Please model this.
Amino acid sequence: MAGRIHGFLGGILLTTSLTYLTQQNFKKNQAIIHDSISQSVETLDIENRKVEINSNVKQLELKTVGESVKDIWNYEIVRGVNWLYSLDFNGTFNRLVNGNVGK
Model:
């Protein structure tokens, strides 16, 4: 029983250690990025240059009801075809011919 407990506690220690080290690495990287951006902003302010901001945020487009119906229809068709492909017609036919039905 002690082996399980020691293994469990060792796993917890390893997981928390990795989580802590990852968090520390994030903080260090965040500080480096913050300093770099601050220096860039200061440089641009000194030079009185305007920076064009390019957003990398994706715009969501709402689907129409027709497109939603088509998507659902296509999903159902693909699901039905996959079910049909999953059937073993050849094996079932061979069992019927050989008399091994139900085995």
The chain is about 75% helix and 0% strand. The chain has a mean pLDDT of 85.
